[in-house]
Design goal:
By secondary structure, the protein is of the alpha+beta class. The longest helix is centred in the first third of the chain and has 45 residues. It has a two-stranded antiparallel ribbon. Strands 3-4 form a two-stranded antiparallel sheet. Helix 1 runs antiparallel to helix 2.
Length: 115
C-alpha cells in the first residue's frame, strides 16, 4: 500500500503541473487575442487607406529623425503569404486574405477558451 507521504508528494507534483499547464494556456490565449486585435486593426486600416489619393505621414529617416511626407498608391499593399513569399495585392484582396486569417484566429481563440 502507498504511504501517505508518497501520495502527498505526488499530489503536489500534479498540482504544480496542472498550474503550469493552466498558465501556458492563458498565455497562449492572450497571444491569440492580441493577434486577433492587431489583425482587426489592420483590416480597418485597409478599409480607410484607399479612400484618399494621398495621406499625410511622418516618414522615418534613421532611428531618431522624422520628416513630413505623404503616402501615395495606398491601394497597393504587400501581403505576406508565409515563409518567404509575398504578393502585391489591392487593398480589397488583402482585406479578404486578412479576413480569412481573422476567422482562423477567432476559431483558435474559441477553442482555447473551451479548454
Amino acid at each position: 500500500m502507498d504511504s501517505p507521504k508518497f501520495l502527498d508528494s505526488a499530489i503536489k507534483v500534479y498540482n504544480v503541473e496542472v498550474h503550469r499547464a493552466i498558465r501556458s494556456q492563458e498565455e497562449q490565449l492572450s497571444q491569440l487575442r492580441t493577434a486577433h486585435s492587431a489583425l482587426k486593426q489592420t483590416i480597418q486600416t485597409l478599409v480607410e487607406l484607399p479612400n484618399r489619393l494621398r495621406h499625410p505621414a511622418m516618414i522615418p529617416l534613421g532611428k531618431h529623425a522624422f520628416f513630413p511626407g505623404h503616402l501615395t498608391h495606398t491601394n497597393e499593399v504587400m501581403v505576406h503569404l508565409g515563409g518567404q513569399y509575398y504578393v502585391e495585392a489591392s487593398a480589397a484582396v488583402a482585406r479578404g486574405i486578412l479576413q480569412r486569417r481573422l476567422d482562423v484566429l477567432a476559431e483558435g481563440v474559441s477553442k482555447a477558451q473551451q479548454q
